[in-house]
Amino acid sequence: MTEVVVDGKTLSYDDVVAVARHSAQVALADEVLPRLERERAVVDDVVDHQVPTYGLTTGLGTRSSYALPRDELELFSVRTVRGRANAVGDPLPASVVRAALLARVNGIAGGGSGVRPEIPRLLIDMLNSRLHPVIPEVGSIGASDLCQMAHVGLVVIGEGSAELGGEVVDGATALRRAGLTPAELGPKDGHVLCSASPLAAGQGALALHEAAAVLTLAQAVTALTYEGFRANTSPLDARVLGLRPAPGQSRAAGELLALLDGGELGDPRHARRVQDPVSLRCAAQVHGALHATLDFADDALAPELNGSGDNPVILAGTDEILSSGNFHTPALALAFDTLALALTQIASISAERMRRLLDPSVSGLPANLSPYGPERSGFAPLVKTAQALVAEIRMLSAPVSTDSRHGADAVEDDSTNAALGARRLTPMLTHLRQLLAVEAVVAAQAVDLAAPSALGRGPEVLHRAIRKVVPRLDDDRPHGVDVETVNRDILGSDDVRRTLRALVEGSS
Q: Domain tally for the chain?
């Protein structure tokens, strides 16, 4: 994808990934600028007639009853940006900044902001020039991402800091080097630059895209474990699942069977046991719950990514400016919390499957999967790494949407922490992929020892890829480097992901 056309209505997660991670160019759809110009005319008319309007002709927050002098409206926009650039901490990664800028441009493009058209055009020019405002990672309580997005506003007016070509410089220098000119803010423009929840939406889109990919990886790694364990697939039978159609479980079971297609395990008579441990027997239920959670999160995020989070909003058709609560994101924050809990379940069950492979009493394989038996450590010490990763993931899964923080006294008395909810998903997904790499390394050894006559198509893809970069275990050796190699070169491989995705999509 070389260009993403922004129209305010159809931005997808793939679009966000293309711009954020692969530097796709961005353009406004033809219909956007005329819409912005019509809305701006409404703003100009309100300013000319000094109609009391929140954040436009009045102050913000607790100062909303204060009427601003006409000759201070432009300066008030600048002060709005300067006064809210209060985030702290390490800079957000460039990919997250790009995702947030794209989300804000798309929210503006869809209508309702009343901003001068020059503002979104400059934001797009910044994206296309790979000019990234430095946004500290902490500052949003989920009542708009005000204190973080204000750092974008600083660069727009030639202040603040930005990264360009790998160097962090002041905003004015960055714009000049990119051949761009700082914007002159008009009434309301400063508030628009700080408004809505583009960090929550942009980073959330990146997280949901990665979570869907990690779910496919979890399915494939589970199928590889099934092969090594010689698992019983009767719990995946559609007739069994139909007796209690829990959300997502039939889809997950169908994907597992599609991955196992071509091997022996599609026939439960090839199973080693009549009934397997829950971590294998109920994989479809746990993975299906993540499928259902991703559907819920998509329903919450799509309107945020393709909607207006401004307050107030401009209705150009009737020349009205109305107060709005669309900046508030409780459903989105709840979705991120739910996703965090679902990812934790995936992690817990992965670690347990890995432990079952090492136990000869249930796996029928040599202890710790060492061909020499109990006089070698085999993979036993790797259990500690797996459990440490689960602990990291579980710690990050604590709900944040119920911890409401307050802004302006008596006015901004509820918030959602949606941006924090989105941000913590990134380290969770990083750790989960590491954990799946642990299970994959162990499962590949189990397959070598079990030596089935034929593997399913999904396990065959993974096993072959793993053995190209990691040899089977003979005598004891360090496993950390093997896990990192599998995580980076296989689970992180776009080619492997596409191949596995094609296999599971054949089940739908």
A: 2
